[in-house]
């Protein structure tokens, strides 16, 4: 099993005395150049992903049924029967206002089985008819060319698909699944189709024609559960504005006409339900009113009987009025009593005056002048007697002035005066007795009236107690009678307590899927996947792509960049600079030669080693062509192939590898015997020779140094093609002896971790003059392997070390390399 390349490189560095990596070896930040390179490489994929997203959107729109939505807006005016009767007071309003204003009950009513059942009775929702289209099936709501009447005894036939094809003017074929088996039969239109548990009758409608007979149909008979589930799923009832008591009824369906009809029918059946409910409520209210009236009438009659008995017993209905009457009687009686007492006093005064014999002060004075108030006696006889007595008294006085008392005239006058006095005394006594009797009678009446007045508060209380239930029952009775008349009138013209503000209309455009939104989602999805691909490829990008990455990630000097060689495909590395001296690759290697001259300008003899991390990075190609360019500058150059495990230099020059470095180091051949010449006169090479079992020990031997010293005598530049340092340690041993060690990095092939290991090699071995070359680079930074030689070292020593890869060709392969 192959070992991970990073682990092998770290092992190699540890074996060479390497140090642990430092922070400066780590790359930090976002590499914009690499990101742009990855984005350019992923451009085709991004376009493909966007096209895929738009295609997916188109397919979704093509194979997704459009959903239509129809809505209506209702305004509901909720009232209570208590409010209609005038029985709801502030407490009832405070308790019931919140619940009455809420429309949740109406929402539940609309979505209840009561409305659903009326819908099923009004609309043909129990059977769905479909016709097969090019892509999707379409429901034939209201436009089906045939109708199905059924009687189902076996519930298994519900919610099952029945396929129907017309085979003739009056014939059709019916097929369906029953208990896992397909049943098929040919029948006649209008004739009953009788099977166990099911009876069907298929009839045609006015829409049946020849075109309709050529289509494929199927229908489904729904049970109540399926219809209810269908309505529950697609029906939406929302409270739009609780303050305005508005409700929106919406229904979604694949068929716009069906959605509109269902919403309108819901409005209609809801109207009917509200009317029926209101009529029922009115009837119940009337029944309640009649019952309450009967009970109230009985109580009112009882209150009337009690009040009537009180009036009959107390001879009055108005106790307060009777108090006023008694008070007036007492006041009047008191006045009369005072008058009588005044008359009695006057009679006593008259009696004293009669006894004294002087009724008047003078002869000319009248009796009324001498006795004021005598007119109040109202006794003419007494008045006349008093007047006569007064006249007799004054006549007696005149006679006494002329006559003696013994005179007959005086005696007659005295006898007449005595007679009148006796009459007056009798009349006064009689009047006094009469007045005293009247006063006693009035005192008795006064006492009786006072007694009656004391009993009136108790009667008033009793009367008020009897009036209260009477007035209450009378008021309730009259109010209930009025409400009964009102409800009787309202029952004749009952209207629902809601208005349809906006009836359902035919939906113009589907609510789902929204074409622009779906395409926008597809476009956004494609772009997002493309950006995600760029991000993933950027974070997974672990190869060197340009010289900027090489310069930023290594401390080695960059000698130059060798472009991709596309003129021919080679299975092995070859010398190409002599065939195309003016090509871009020749010019780039000349630039590298110039940079080498600047680095080692003080030395005439130079030892240059060329290595890489793993095989396939182009070190043999660079070595051969760099040697060719240097040789073309009139310097004698020899190329040594020290990759004795996998020699390739001889293949580059098309020579044999029978003898070479390995046979020189074991002293089997001399240098002159192993030197091979090339097409360039100043360029020679020595192949690796047969593969020895101990290449490292041969390089460490003194024979290797002696070979180099002998080569210095004949050549100006010694180029050594060393093994990859990422697989074996031979390359490090040679690099220590070289004047200029060169490290080959292949664009779009070498891992970025290889650059970190270049820094580790420099620190561990003090390779201060180590230089790097970026091989196989394209001007645009795109991928391309150029000359296409193999890279058979693999990633594990001993695993695939001698394996070769075949070159890849073809347009698709080039595109894949360019964009992948």
Automatic annotation (TrEMBL):
Residues 462-538 form the Tyrosine-protein kinase G-rich domain. InterPro entries: AAA_dom, Bact_polysacc_biosynth/exp, GNVR, P-loop_NTPase, Wzc-like_C. GO terms for cellular component: plasma membrane. The chain crosses the membrane at residues 43-61, 516-540. It catalyses: L-tyrosyl-[protein] + ATP = O-phospho-L-tyrosyl-[protein] + ADP + H(+). Residues 286-350, 396-459 form a coiled coil. Residues 606-764 form the AAA domain. Its EC number is 2.7.10.2. One of its GO terms (molecular function) is non-membrane spanning protein tyrosine kinase activity. CDD domains: BY-kinase. It is an enzyme of class 2 (transferase). Keywords: ATP-binding, Coiled coil, Kinase, Membrane, Nucleotide-binding, Transferase, Transmembrane, Transmembrane helix, Tyrosine-protein kinase. PANTHER family: FERRIC ENTEROBACTIN TRANSPORT PROTEIN FEPE (PTHR32309:SF13), TYROSINE-PROTEIN KINASE (PTHR32309). Belongs to the etk/wzc family. This is non-specific protein-tyrosine kinase.
